[in-house]
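hey so i finaly got around to running the thing on Protein kinase domain-containing protein from Laodelphax striatellus. pasting the sequence first so u can double check i didnt mess up the copy paste, my clipboard has been acting weird all day
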Amino acid sequence: MHNISDEFDIFDLLRNMVDDVQEPSHEANTLIAKNNNPHARSKVYLGNAIAVKKYNAEDLCLHDIYRIEDEISLLKQLNHQGVMNLISTFVSGTKIAYVMPFMECGSCQNLMESKFTTGLPECWIALIVKNVLEALNFIHNNGIIHRAIKARHILLNRDGSIKLTGFRYAFKKISNDDEEVDKNMTVHYFPYDSTPNLKWLSPEILRQDLLGYTEKSDVYSLGITICELANGLPPFENLEPKKLLLDKLSGVVPLIFDCSTHLEFIPSIKNLATPSEQLDVYTTRSITTSLHSLKNICCISNYEDRPTVDDLMNNEFFIESEKCVLIPDVLPLIEFKKIEDFDDEESIEWDF
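ok and heres what it spat out for the 3d tokens, dont ask me to read them lol
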């Protein structure tokens, strides 16, 4: 991490440090997103082909600052096309800045909110989930549990690239003796700042018992994310945390909404004020059996019976991904806003 003077133009520094960063096409005060998570308040600014995420340490407790430092250290170790890479980091006074590639289309959550409110096309889901599995396979082989797989943490670009982000929630398994990765370690630590991720967390993480959890907890979160991508909203959306916990611990498997499941899911979304047009889509469409099946095996409550990422890589559902591409003209670009146009309570879900 680089220590620099309080007064600086971050893009001037980038020109000197990173060969492939061009002149910014927008001023540095083009704010594209705010994250109001009390444990990770941040703002993301736009340059040409880069995004600069800035934290103010004065807004964070010491534990949060350590988490940011751990995230930076972790990202510097990861080099995979499916993982959001870190170009550089800077410290200026109390400000901490990450520099990362700019993903023009934002997250899968952005895409669903703006264009696909009832869920993404199945072949897109196949392509996205297959890419996430490849990223998970890489990080699991490096002893890392992600612990925050969800649509908001899957970013898309107009060139068709798909990147996994959200690594500030990740845990790296390290042996106490030699600081090497211990792939057989069972983890018992519950991330204290995981409230935004409760709907996606596995039963074994939420249970917090002596059995702990492993990389298979990410497989469960992927199953929840499959539901989210297929329905346009995450499961357990209308539940209080206590009811959510009870449902997960009792083995409730969330549903993908279609004509084969409508008798079961209609009662579960009655409190969400779902528009009638959206309900019509859900109740008349037909989702392939292979996608329902993939979601079901990912969401098996007992993690010992749940498949690994390796087991899922050749699932029959992914035959669809071989003939699918993300169509650039269909992917909407993020709409930019100047800083002064943002209301203090407003938040765009851009989270890397």
